[in-house]
Amino acid sequence: MNLHIKHNSQFTIHHSQLKLSGSKSETNRLLLLQALYLTITLENASNSEDSEVMLDALHPKRKVNNSQVVDVHHAGTAMRFLTAFFAIQEGREVVVTGSNRMKERPIKILVEALQQLGANIKYLDKIGFPPLKIKGKELTEHKITIAANVSSQYISALLLIAPKLKKGIEVTLEGEITSMPYITMTLALLNQIGVTTSFSNNCITVKPLSTIQKQALNEKSESNSHFIIESDWSSASYFYSIVALSKMDTQISLSNFKFNSLQGDVALVQIYEHFGVETTFTTTGIQLKKVKYVANYFQYNFTSCPDLAQTLAVTCFGLGVGCNLTGLHTLKIKETDRLVALEKELSKLGAFVITSDDSLKIGASTRINPNCSLKTYQDHRMAMAFAPLALKVPLLIQDAEVVAKSYPNFWKDLADIGFQVTEAH
Predict the structure, then answer these.
(1) Which of 68, 232, 276, 372 has the most crowded Cβ, counting Cβ within 10 A?
(2) Is 50 a catalytic residue?
(3) Catalytic residue (choose from 50, 232, 265, 307)
Protein backbone atom coordinates (compact mmCIF):
# COMPACT_ATOMS: atom_id res chain seq x y z
CA MET A 1 0.00 0.00 0.00
CA ASN A 2 1.40 3.36 -1.09
CA LEU A 3 0.08 6.54 0.53
CA HIS A 4 -0.05 10.17 -0.58
CA ILE A 5 0.64 12.38 2.42
CA LYS A 6 0.13 16.14 2.60
CA HIS A 7 -0.99 18.59 5.22
CA ASN A 8 -4.41 20.18 5.01
CA SER A 9 -3.60 23.89 4.96
CA GLN A 10 -7.12 24.68 6.21
CA PHE A 11 -6.55 22.60 9.34
CA THR A 12 -4.26 24.10 11.97
CA ILE A 13 -2.63 21.78 14.49
CA HIS A 14 -3.35 23.84 17.57
CA HIS A 15 -4.09 21.56 20.46
CA SER A 16 -4.49 17.96 19.34
CA GLN A 17 -4.55 15.08 21.81
CA LEU A 18 -3.47 11.50 21.13
CA LYS A 19 -3.08 8.32 23.15
CA LEU A 20 -0.20 6.15 21.97
CA SER A 21 0.17 2.44 22.55
CA GLY A 22 2.45 1.06 25.24
CA SER A 23 6.22 0.93 24.83
CA LYS A 24 7.30 -1.90 22.55
CA SER A 25 10.58 -2.21 24.45
CA GLU A 26 8.91 -2.56 27.84
CA THR A 27 6.14 -4.80 26.50
CA ASN A 28 8.48 -7.32 24.87
CA ARG A 29 10.63 -7.58 28.00
CA LEU A 30 7.58 -8.04 30.19
CA LEU A 31 6.00 -10.61 27.86
CA LEU A 32 9.11 -12.76 28.23
CA LEU A 33 9.14 -12.29 32.02
CA GLN A 34 5.41 -13.13 32.07
CA ALA A 35 6.18 -16.43 30.32
CA LEU A 36 8.78 -17.19 33.02
CA TYR A 37 6.66 -15.92 35.96
CA LEU A 38 3.01 -16.65 35.24
CA THR A 39 1.66 -14.31 37.94
CA ILE A 40 2.72 -11.17 36.01
CA THR A 41 -0.15 -9.15 34.48
CA LEU A 42 0.09 -6.22 32.05
CA GLU A 43 -1.89 -3.09 31.19
CA ASN A 44 -1.45 -0.87 28.11
CA ALA A 45 0.71 -3.42 26.32
CA SER A 46 1.99 -2.48 22.86
CA ASN A 47 -0.29 -3.36 19.94
CA SER A 48 2.70 -3.55 17.58
CA GLU A 49 3.34 -6.47 15.23
CA ASP A 50 6.63 -7.09 17.06
CA SER A 51 4.76 -7.63 20.33
CA GLU A 52 2.16 -9.83 18.60
CA VAL A 53 5.05 -11.96 17.30
CA MET A 54 6.35 -12.33 20.86
CA LEU A 55 2.89 -13.34 22.11
CA ASP A 56 2.42 -15.93 19.36
CA ALA A 57 5.85 -17.45 20.00
CA LEU A 58 5.41 -17.63 23.77
CA HIS A 59 1.93 -19.21 23.41
CA PRO A 60 2.37 -21.76 20.60
CA LYS A 61 -0.65 -22.83 18.58
CA ARG A 62 0.93 -25.15 16.01
CA LYS A 63 3.59 -27.88 16.03
CA VAL A 64 5.27 -29.52 13.07
CA ASN A 65 6.73 -33.05 13.41
CA ASN A 66 7.11 -32.61 17.19
CA SER A 67 9.27 -29.55 16.51
CA GLN A 68 7.88 -26.04 16.62
CA VAL A 69 8.88 -23.52 13.95
CA VAL A 70 8.82 -19.95 15.27
CA ASP A 71 8.81 -17.28 12.55
CA VAL A 72 9.55 -13.80 13.95
CA HIS A 73 9.27 -12.13 10.51
CA HIS A 74 11.09 -8.74 10.79
CA ALA A 75 11.06 -8.56 14.61
CA GLY A 76 14.68 -8.22 15.73
CA THR A 77 13.84 -7.89 19.43
CA ALA A 78 11.79 -11.07 19.27
CA MET A 79 14.62 -12.96 17.53
CA ARG A 80 17.14 -12.04 20.25
CA PHE A 81 14.83 -12.47 23.26
CA LEU A 82 13.27 -15.72 22.05
CA THR A 83 16.65 -17.27 21.27
CA ALA A 84 17.55 -16.89 24.95
CA PHE A 85 14.09 -17.94 26.14
CA PHE A 86 13.97 -21.19 24.15
CA ALA A 87 17.54 -22.07 25.20
CA ILE A 88 16.27 -22.66 28.77
CA GLN A 89 13.00 -24.47 27.91
CA GLU A 90 14.08 -27.95 29.02
CA GLY A 91 13.03 -30.78 26.73
CA ARG A 92 11.65 -28.47 24.03
CA GLU A 93 13.07 -28.22 20.51
CA VAL A 94 12.34 -25.27 18.22
CA VAL A 95 13.53 -23.68 15.01
CA VAL A 96 13.61 -19.87 15.17
CA THR A 97 13.58 -18.17 11.80
CA GLY A 98 12.47 -14.91 10.18
CA SER A 99 12.24 -12.84 7.03
CA ASN A 100 14.98 -12.73 4.41
CA ARG A 101 16.29 -9.54 6.02
CA MET A 102 16.27 -11.24 9.45
CA LYS A 103 18.47 -13.98 8.02
CA GLU A 104 21.02 -11.26 7.19
CA ARG A 105 21.03 -9.79 10.72
CA PRO A 106 23.85 -11.16 12.92
CA ILE A 107 23.15 -13.14 16.06
CA LYS A 108 26.49 -14.89 16.59
CA ILE A 109 27.47 -12.83 19.65
CA LEU A 110 24.31 -13.86 21.52
CA VAL A 111 24.50 -17.49 20.42
CA GLU A 112 28.13 -17.78 21.56
CA ALA A 113 27.25 -16.21 24.93
CA LEU A 114 24.42 -18.71 25.43
CA GLN A 115 26.73 -21.54 24.40
CA GLN A 116 29.17 -20.35 27.09
CA LEU A 117 26.32 -21.00 29.53
CA GLY A 118 25.83 -24.49 28.08
CA ALA A 119 23.05 -23.88 25.52
CA ASN A 120 22.44 -26.27 22.61
CA ILE A 121 22.02 -24.00 19.56
CA LYS A 122 22.93 -24.80 15.95
CA TYR A 123 22.84 -22.73 12.78
CA LEU A 124 20.69 -24.19 10.00
CA ASP A 125 22.14 -22.09 7.20
CA LYS A 126 24.80 -19.38 7.36
CA ILE A 127 27.07 -19.41 10.43
CA GLY A 128 26.30 -16.47 12.70
CA PHE A 129 22.80 -15.82 11.33
CA PRO A 130 19.26 -17.20 11.69
CA PRO A 131 17.59 -19.64 11.31
CA LEU A 132 18.55 -21.40 14.53
CA LYS A 133 17.77 -24.87 15.88
CA ILE A 134 17.50 -24.72 19.66
CA LYS A 135 17.20 -27.68 22.04
CA GLY A 136 16.17 -26.32 25.42
CA LYS A 137 18.05 -27.53 28.49
CA GLU A 138 19.12 -26.52 31.97
CA LEU A 139 22.02 -24.08 31.74
CA THR A 140 24.48 -24.75 34.56
CA GLU A 141 27.22 -22.21 33.85
CA HIS A 142 26.75 -18.62 35.00
CA LYS A 143 29.80 -16.57 33.95
CA ILE A 144 30.06 -15.14 30.44
CA THR A 145 31.82 -12.39 28.52
CA ILE A 146 30.06 -10.55 25.67
CA ALA A 147 30.85 -7.67 23.31
CA ALA A 148 28.81 -4.63 24.40
CA ASN A 149 29.25 -2.45 21.32
CA VAL A 150 27.02 -4.26 18.80
CA SER A 151 23.49 -4.61 20.22
CA SER A 152 22.15 -4.08 23.73
CA GLN A 153 19.39 -6.59 22.88
CA TYR A 154 21.93 -9.42 23.14
CA ILE A 155 22.68 -8.35 26.70
CA SER A 156 19.03 -7.81 27.66
CA ALA A 157 18.13 -11.26 26.29
CA LEU A 158 20.65 -12.85 28.66
CA LEU A 159 19.58 -10.74 31.64
CA LEU A 160 15.89 -11.59 31.18
CA ILE A 161 16.46 -15.35 31.49
CA ALA A 162 19.11 -14.99 34.22
CA PRO A 163 16.77 -15.23 37.26
CA LYS A 164 15.63 -18.65 36.08
CA LEU A 165 19.20 -20.02 35.97
CA LYS A 166 20.23 -22.02 39.03
CA LYS A 167 23.17 -19.70 39.77
CA GLY A 168 21.87 -16.58 38.07
CA ILE A 169 24.35 -14.89 35.75
CA GLU A 170 27.51 -12.80 35.80
CA VAL A 171 28.04 -10.91 32.53
CA THR A 172 31.29 -9.10 31.73
CA LEU A 173 30.81 -6.45 29.02
CA GLU A 174 33.66 -5.76 26.61
CA GLY A 175 33.98 -2.49 24.69
CA GLU A 176 31.85 0.65 24.65
CA ILE A 177 28.27 -0.08 25.70
CA THR A 178 25.67 0.65 22.99
CA SER A 179 22.12 1.74 23.87
CA MET A 180 22.84 1.74 27.60
CA PRO A 181 19.30 2.91 28.58
CA TYR A 182 17.84 -0.34 27.25
CA ILE A 183 20.09 -2.36 29.58
CA THR A 184 19.09 -0.08 32.44
CA MET A 185 15.42 -0.66 31.54
CA THR A 186 15.88 -4.43 31.64
CA LEU A 187 17.55 -4.29 35.05
CA ALA A 188 14.85 -1.94 36.41
CA LEU A 189 12.07 -4.34 35.34
CA LEU A 190 13.94 -7.25 36.93
CA ASN A 191 14.32 -5.25 40.13
CA GLN A 192 10.60 -4.46 40.09
CA ILE A 193 9.64 -8.15 40.20
CA GLY A 194 12.07 -8.71 43.06
CA VAL A 195 15.27 -9.83 41.31
CA THR A 196 18.54 -8.72 42.92
CA THR A 197 20.98 -7.19 40.40
CA SER A 198 24.23 -5.22 40.46
CA PHE A 199 26.09 -3.33 37.74
CA SER A 200 29.61 -2.02 38.30
CA ASN A 201 32.92 -1.97 36.43
CA ASN A 202 31.26 -3.30 33.27
CA CYS A 203 30.07 -6.40 35.12
CA ILE A 204 26.37 -7.20 35.60
CA THR A 205 25.26 -9.75 38.18
CA VAL A 206 21.71 -11.13 38.33
CA LYS A 207 20.66 -13.42 41.20
CA PRO A 208 18.17 -16.30 40.83
CA LEU A 209 14.47 -15.81 41.66
CA SER A 210 12.15 -18.82 41.72
CA THR A 211 8.81 -17.06 42.34
CA ILE A 212 7.53 -13.50 42.74
CA GLN A 213 6.46 -12.49 46.24
CA LYS A 214 3.64 -10.04 45.54
CA GLN A 215 3.76 -6.53 47.00
CA ALA A 216 2.25 -3.16 46.08
CA LEU A 217 4.54 -0.47 44.68
CA ASN A 218 2.38 2.67 44.32
CA GLU A 219 -1.06 4.20 44.62
CA LYS A 220 -1.91 3.46 40.96
CA SER A 221 -2.32 -0.21 41.92
CA GLU A 222 0.93 -1.12 40.16
CA SER A 223 2.78 -3.92 41.95
CA ASN A 224 5.80 -6.11 41.41
CA SER A 225 3.57 -8.48 39.41
CA HIS A 226 1.16 -5.98 37.79
CA PHE A 227 2.63 -3.49 35.33
CA ILE A 228 1.01 -0.42 33.74
CA ILE A 229 3.19 0.03 30.66
CA GLU A 230 4.16 3.57 29.71
CA SER A 231 3.40 4.74 26.17
CA ASP A 232 6.17 4.51 23.60
CA TRP A 233 8.67 7.39 23.45
CA SER A 234 9.99 6.20 20.08
CA SER A 235 6.47 6.67 18.68
CA ALA A 236 6.28 10.09 20.33
CA SER A 237 9.35 11.19 18.36
CA TYR A 238 7.33 11.67 15.16
CA PHE A 239 5.05 14.16 16.91
CA TYR A 240 8.04 16.03 18.28
CA SER A 241 9.19 16.30 14.66
CA ILE A 242 5.74 17.51 13.56
CA VAL A 243 5.68 20.22 16.23
CA ALA A 244 9.25 21.29 15.37
CA LEU A 245 8.27 21.65 11.69
CA SER A 246 5.02 23.49 12.49
CA LYS A 247 4.07 27.10 13.14
CA MET A 248 4.60 28.87 16.46
CA ASP A 249 2.22 27.84 19.27
CA THR A 250 1.39 24.47 17.70
CA GLN A 251 0.48 22.07 20.50
CA ILE A 252 0.04 18.30 20.69
CA SER A 253 -0.74 16.37 23.89
CA LEU A 254 0.27 12.72 24.26
CA SER A 255 -1.17 10.52 27.00
CA ASN A 256 0.50 8.14 29.47
CA PHE A 257 4.10 9.38 29.51
CA LYS A 258 6.21 9.62 32.67
CA PHE A 259 8.88 12.07 33.78
CA ASN A 260 10.88 9.21 35.35
CA SER A 261 10.66 7.00 32.25
CA LEU A 262 12.66 3.79 31.87
CA GLN A 263 12.88 4.40 28.12
CA GLY A 264 16.09 5.87 26.70
CA ASP A 265 14.17 7.76 24.02
CA VAL A 266 12.91 10.15 26.71
CA ALA A 267 16.04 12.01 25.53
CA LEU A 268 13.60 13.60 23.06
CA VAL A 269 12.68 16.12 25.74
CA GLN A 270 16.17 17.64 25.76
CA ILE A 271 16.98 17.05 22.09
CA TYR A 272 13.95 18.88 20.73
CA GLU A 273 14.52 21.92 22.93
CA HIS A 274 17.13 22.73 20.27
CA PHE A 275 14.33 22.89 17.70
CA GLY A 276 12.04 25.08 19.79
CA VAL A 277 9.80 22.34 21.19
CA GLU A 278 8.86 22.70 24.85
CA THR A 279 7.71 19.64 26.80
CA THR A 280 5.40 20.01 29.78
CA PHE A 281 4.67 16.95 31.92
CA THR A 282 1.06 16.78 33.09
CA THR A 283 -0.88 14.40 35.32
CA THR A 284 -1.91 12.42 32.22
CA GLY A 285 1.16 12.65 29.97
CA ILE A 286 3.04 15.35 28.06
CA GLN A 287 2.17 18.50 26.14
CA LEU A 288 4.41 19.57 23.25
CA LYS A 289 4.45 23.20 22.13
CA LYS A 290 6.43 25.11 19.51
CA VAL A 291 7.76 28.12 21.40
CA LYS A 292 10.59 29.51 19.26
CA TYR A 293 12.46 29.15 15.98
CA VAL A 294 15.92 27.63 16.06
CA ALA A 295 18.25 27.48 13.07
CA ASN A 296 21.65 26.52 14.42
CA TYR A 297 23.87 23.63 13.43
CA PHE A 298 22.90 20.43 15.27
CA GLN A 299 25.35 17.81 16.50
CA TYR A 300 24.48 14.79 18.61
CA ASN A 301 25.82 11.34 19.53
CA PHE A 302 23.00 8.76 19.31
CA THR A 303 24.84 5.84 20.92
CA SER A 304 22.25 5.73 23.72
CA CYS A 305 19.16 6.30 21.54
CA PRO A 306 19.81 5.14 17.95
CA ASP A 307 16.11 4.71 17.11
CA LEU A 308 15.74 8.52 17.14
CA ALA A 309 18.38 9.18 14.50
CA GLN A 310 16.11 8.89 11.44
CA THR A 311 13.55 11.23 12.95
CA LEU A 312 16.18 13.83 13.81
CA ALA A 313 17.80 13.62 10.39
CA VAL A 314 14.47 14.43 8.74
CA THR A 315 13.68 17.19 11.26
CA CYS A 316 17.01 18.88 10.54
CA PHE A 317 16.51 18.67 6.79
CA GLY A 318 12.94 19.96 7.03
CA LEU A 319 14.07 22.99 9.03
CA GLY A 320 17.09 23.65 6.82
CA VAL A 321 19.44 22.97 9.74
CA GLY A 322 22.82 21.40 8.96
CA CYS A 323 23.69 18.48 11.22
CA ASN A 324 26.29 15.90 12.18
CA LEU A 325 24.73 12.79 13.73
CA THR A 326 27.18 10.27 15.22
CA GLY A 327 27.07 7.00 17.20
CA LEU A 328 25.03 5.35 14.43
CA HIS A 329 26.97 2.09 13.95
CA THR A 330 23.99 -0.08 14.98
CA LEU A 331 21.81 1.40 12.22
CA LYS A 332 23.53 -0.79 9.65
CA ILE A 333 22.09 -4.00 11.17
CA LYS A 334 18.51 -2.85 11.70
CA GLU A 335 15.46 -3.68 9.53
CA THR A 336 17.51 -2.22 6.69
CA ASP A 337 20.88 -0.47 6.52
CA ARG A 338 19.35 2.74 7.81
CA LEU A 339 22.35 4.91 6.95
CA VAL A 340 22.21 3.89 3.28
CA ALA A 341 18.41 4.23 3.24
CA LEU A 342 18.54 7.73 4.76
CA GLU A 343 21.18 8.88 2.30
CA LYS A 344 19.16 7.65 -0.71
CA GLU A 345 15.77 9.05 0.32
CA LEU A 346 17.03 12.38 1.69
CA SER A 347 18.99 12.86 -1.54
CA LYS A 348 15.77 12.42 -3.55
CA LEU A 349 14.30 15.29 -1.56
CA GLY A 350 17.27 17.51 -2.38
CA ALA A 351 19.49 17.03 0.66
CA PHE A 352 23.29 16.96 0.51
CA VAL A 353 24.18 13.91 2.62
CA ILE A 354 27.49 12.34 3.62
CA THR A 355 27.56 9.05 5.56
CA SER A 356 30.24 6.89 7.13
CA ASP A 357 29.93 3.60 9.01
CA ASP A 358 28.65 5.40 12.10
CA SER A 359 27.70 8.96 11.16
CA LEU A 360 25.49 11.06 8.91
CA LYS A 361 25.97 14.69 7.90
CA ILE A 362 23.38 16.85 6.15
CA GLY A 363 24.12 20.26 4.71
CA ALA A 364 21.84 23.20 5.47
CA SER A 365 19.23 23.47 2.72
CA THR A 366 16.36 25.82 1.88
CA ARG A 367 14.56 23.71 -0.74
CA ILE A 368 12.68 20.41 -0.48
CA ASN A 369 11.70 18.62 -3.69
CA PRO A 370 7.92 17.99 -3.67
CA ASN A 371 6.01 14.83 -4.62
CA CYS A 372 8.93 12.46 -4.08
CA SER A 373 8.17 8.75 -3.90
CA LEU A 374 10.02 7.52 -0.83
CA LYS A 375 11.02 3.89 -0.28
CA THR A 376 10.66 2.41 3.19
CA TYR A 377 12.89 -0.69 2.75
CA GLN A 378 10.57 -2.79 4.98
CA ASP A 379 11.55 -0.43 7.81
CA HIS A 380 8.74 1.06 9.89
CA ARG A 381 10.90 3.96 11.07
CA MET A 382 11.68 5.08 7.52
CA ALA A 383 7.95 5.55 6.84
CA MET A 384 7.21 7.39 10.09
CA ALA A 385 10.37 9.52 10.20
CA PHE A 386 9.70 11.02 6.75
CA ALA A 387 5.95 11.56 7.18
CA PRO A 388 6.27 14.89 9.09
CA LEU A 389 7.89 16.44 5.98
CA ALA A 390 4.37 16.47 4.49
CA LEU A 391 3.97 19.70 6.48
CA LYS A 392 6.37 21.21 3.95
CA VAL A 393 5.70 19.33 0.67
CA PRO A 394 3.39 16.53 -0.55
CA LEU A 395 4.98 13.05 -0.36
CA LEU A 396 4.30 9.51 -1.47
CA ILE A 397 5.28 6.83 1.06
CA GLN A 398 5.80 3.37 -0.47
CA ASP A 399 4.70 0.22 1.40
CA ALA A 400 3.24 2.41 4.12
CA GLU A 401 1.68 -0.55 5.96
CA VAL A 402 5.15 -1.32 7.35
CA VAL A 403 4.35 1.01 10.29
CA ALA A 404 2.35 -1.86 11.83
CA LYS A 405 5.65 -3.29 13.08
CA SER A 406 5.65 -0.78 15.94
CA TYR A 407 2.74 1.68 15.51
CA PRO A 408 -0.31 0.28 13.66
CA ASN A 409 -2.43 3.42 14.22
CA PHE A 410 0.16 5.88 12.90
CA TRP A 411 -1.61 6.94 9.70
CA LYS A 412 -4.96 7.25 11.49
CA ASP A 413 -3.38 9.43 14.17
CA LEU A 414 -1.76 11.59 11.49
CA ALA A 415 -5.15 12.05 9.80
CA ASP A 416 -6.70 12.97 13.16
CA ILE A 417 -4.33 15.93 13.55
CA GLY A 418 -4.93 17.33 10.08
CA PHE A 419 -2.84 15.42 7.54
CA GLN A 420 -4.47 14.22 4.32
CA VAL A 421 -3.63 10.53 4.01
CA THR A 422 -4.94 8.89 0.84
CA GLU A 423 -4.13 5.62 -0.86
CA ALA A 424 -2.21 5.90 -4.13
CA HIS A 425 -3.61 3.78 -6.96
Answers:
(1) 232
(2) no
(3) 307
